[in-house]
Every structure is written in C-alpha cells, then in structure tokens.
Write a structure and sequence with these properties.
Helix content of chain A: 40-55%
Shape of chain A: globular
Keywords (chains A, B): Cytoplasm
CATH class of the domain at 70-214 in chain A: Mainly Alpha
Order of helices and strands of chain A: HEEHHHHHHHHH
Oligomer: homodimer
Organism (chains A, B): Ancylobacter dichloromethanicus
Subcellular location (chains A, B): Cytoplasm
Largest interface: A-B, 75 and 75 residues
Strand content of chain A: under 5%
Number of strands of chain A: 2
Number of helices of chain A: 10
Radius of gyration of chain A: 19 Å
GO molecular function (chains A, B): glutathione transferase activity
Main location (chains A, B): cytoplasm
Structural class of chain A: mainly alpha
Chain lengths: 257, 257
C-alpha cells in the first residue's frame, strides 16, 4: 500500500498476546486467527499475497508488481507458489529459535527445539540455494529486472532472519546475490517503516527484555513448519496426544477439528 | 485444460523413479524437480496454481475459474494461499503413510514414521475443520455457488487421501459438507481422467504390488511437510546430519545449499 500510494489506517495486532487466538477475533476477521488482515468497508480479505493482489487490482497498481504480460505474470505466480512451500516454511528457523521458544516458556535458542530449528534451517538454506542459483541467477530482482511483489514477499521473510540474527555472516558471504538483493530492498523508502515492529520486538526478545512470561499466546504463529512431540503446534490442543485428538475428530467430527 | 478445452499433449512423469531427481531434468524443466510442469513452446511454467492461472489467462477461460470481479478473485486467491499452508501440507498424512514409506524402503503405514503421519493427519483434520465450518459453511463450492479453480486444487488433494484410504469412513461422516462436495466434484466429466494415475498406482502400493524395491527415487515428493530424525526429507543429503549440512553451507555457500 505504501509502494502504490494507497491510504490506509494501520492497526498493529500484537501477536505476543492471545488476541488472535480468541474466538471473537476468528469469527470477525479470520477463522485461522492469522495476520495480516485487510478490512475494506464491508469486505475483509486475509493472507498477505491475496491482500496484495486485491489492493493492486483495486487501486490500479503499476504493472511491475504482478507482471505486465501473461508470461511475466506466470513467473511472479510461480515464484509466489515456490515461496510458500520453501522460503516461507524456512521461517521455522526464526520461529523455533526465537518466537516459538518464548511461546512455550523457554529462552531464545532453547535446545528443547533442536529438531524444529534444524528443519527450519534446512528448508531456509535449501530455499536460499534456489534463490541464489535460479531466481537471482542473471537478474536484479527475483522475477526480472524490475522490482515485483515477489521481491517484497521474499524480502519480508529475510527481515525476520535478519532481526533474529538467524543467518550467520559466513553464510551471507556464500550467497552474494541474495546479500546484494536484500541490501537493495532494505534501502527502499518504506522498508524501515514496514519492518520496524519486527526489529524492535525481536531485538527485545534476543536481549531478554521481552520474556516468556510476557507472552500470552499459546500457539505457534507459523503453521505447517513444525512438529513437536509428534504433534503440531499450530493447534489449540497443546497438551493432547495426537492419537487422542484423532479419536475426538472421529467421534465428534468438524466441530472439534 | 480439460475444463476449458485447451488441447495439450500429456507426458506422465513417473515419480516412483528418480527422473525428477536428476540434474538434467532440473536444469531443463524445474530447479526443484517437482511436477507438474507446462511447456508452451519456448516458455516453461511450473507450480500447479501458476500453470492454471497462465492457461486460464492465455486461453480466456470462463470467469468462474479465477473470479469475475475484484472481490471474487480475492476470495479465490485467499483460498489458494490458505490451502498452501494447511490442506496441502496435510498431504503429509498420505505421504508418510503410503508414498514416503516406500521411498525409504518400508511397507505402507510403517510405524517408523508415526510422528510424521501424526503431524500430517493433524494438519489434514484441522484443514478439514476450516473447510467444513468456514469455506463450505453456506455454499456449494469453496468460494461461492459456482465451481472455481480453488475447488479443483482442493479436490485433487482429497483424491490422494481417497486413493490411499487415509480418511476413515467415520471421519467422512463427521464432515458431511466436504463429503457432498467431494462427491459432486468426483462426478465432473474429467475427474476420473485426471486422477487415474493416482488411483491405479496408490492401489498397487496398498496391495503390495508396487513395493519399496521398485522405487528408484530417494527423496520426498512433498516438501515442507515432514521431519525425520530432525532432518528434512526433501533434500538430497539423506544420510547427513543437519549440523554437518549447515557446516558445508557455511563453508561452501550456495553451491551446496
């Protein structure tokens, strides 16, 4: 919205609290309880990529954001799908080193979550390999020589890792194209504004100024990336065995799923 | 392509073999080695959703497939994003009960993968809860009263579970809207054609006619859904510890990521 000059009112949903876990929030805005969410008069849309497509279409954003022709659009769509199954899930490296630790009452980098941290980091490094060797192989931006929404999505992913100091310097050095691209995107006029909350709050978490006892939320913010004790963290039944959850669903159906 | 009458030549890529793991395949078609892939003259596009958008746009598919107006399109986009992080990852239930077992030399339903099976099933049941209670709450199809591409994507996901008998009858009974919707989509003219390979081959796997020793592939087909021994299966370094992989990336960079 900043990039294409669409005026909006911002409301920060503090995801360290339980606000997005409450049923009233889910009924009113988003059944999954995830953010971001756009409310445009009577119409509500969630999922960042869907929001961006909606805003760009409604407010006639320039062609570079989602592509000027069929093939360019296909490239950007292809990137956004690839991203969902790779780079986005690599966010588990950040989540299980910083955010998830605090949710579950531990300090950042808790060894309790080594398996999840390893999985997240593996997905992250793999995704970085494809980004360096394929998407950025011979061009300035991930889908061509102009910036597109695909860059903004991917950039935002690296902001978490940067804020949480997840990627060591010696790894950045092995991925020079990503490093140059990230720097270029960091220098865009609105980059700081949209990533300020992350840098500020993640900084507090790392320095121990924001501790587990200050976290009211009890579930993960990054579904699909994590297993812990054989049970997914994205669900509200944290202390229930998977097998018991399955039995409840078998007996009571959609109401408890 | 069947639905909007676009002529094409089909080439089945047998994913029980190692064909998609070979570098020449990756260089020529898709760096991730995943299918489906569309080759349209000089232009190649992969990722099913990106392919569908491309074909629908290029061949002027009817408005129902990706939406007739801004809000309808936003709904379909929202569904396709939701789907990527939930229902699609619930495919781990199928993968780790059937396909993954054979890849890693075990019989279907191997108890070796209980944690992965549980995670997949948890994600699947959760996603089914949202599908039943939200997407299909008061309408015929997932994004409205007309069929859209969102239905085709979600339908195809359930085909794997149906072919692999992953969802027990008593669970189907608890999700009556999904069951009715699945039946309706199964009865579309082309449903059988596009799911034939799955039904035939998964049937052979369950009956023990297609065994682990017949599988040439060594890596998962469903990235991001699984952890095993703290190491992701989607990568080619199957017998390497995560920590050793990280050290290699730190030392050698993108070339080994």
């Amino acid at each position: 919205m900043y990039e294409i000059d669409v005026p909006f009112e911002e409301e920060v949903v503090d995801i360290t609290t339980d606000i997005t876990e409450r049923q009233e929030f889910r009924d009113k805005y988003n059944p999954t309880g995830q953010v971001p969410i756009l409310v445009d008069g009577e119409f509500t849309v969630w999922e960042s990529v869907a929001i961006a497509r909606y805003v760009n279409e409604k407010f006639d954003g320039a062609g570079n954001w989602f592509g000027r022709g069929t093939q360019e659009r296909a490239q950007i769509n292809q990137f956004l799908q690839w991203y969902a199954y790779t780079l986005r899930l690599g966010g588990g490296a950040f989540h299980w080193n910083i955010f998830g630790c605090l949710i579950y009452g531990e300090k950042p980098y808790s060894p309790k979550f080594t398996a999840e941290q390893n999985k997240g980091r593996t997905l992250l490094y793999e995704a970085m390999g494809t980004l360096e060797n394929y998407w950025l192989r011979d061009r300035e931006y991930v889908c061509g020589d102009e910036v597109s929404y695909a860059d903004l999505a991917a950039f935002h992913e690296f902001v978490s890792h940067e804020a949480g100091k997840i990627i060591p310097d010696r790894v950045w050095q092995g991925f020079p194209k990503i490093a140059a691209w990230f720097k270029k995107l960091s220098e865009r006029p609105h980059a700081k504004t949209v990533s300020e909350w992350q840098y500020t709050n993640v900084g507090k978490m790392i320095r121990g100024e924001l501790t587990a006892s200050m976290f009211k939320r009890k579930t993960a913010v990054l579904k699909g990336t994590e297993v812990f004790s054989g049970h997914n963290h994205g669900i509200p039944y944290l202390n229930e065995k998977a097998e018991d959850y399955f039995k409840r669903v078998e007996k009571e159906g959609a109401a408890v799923a």
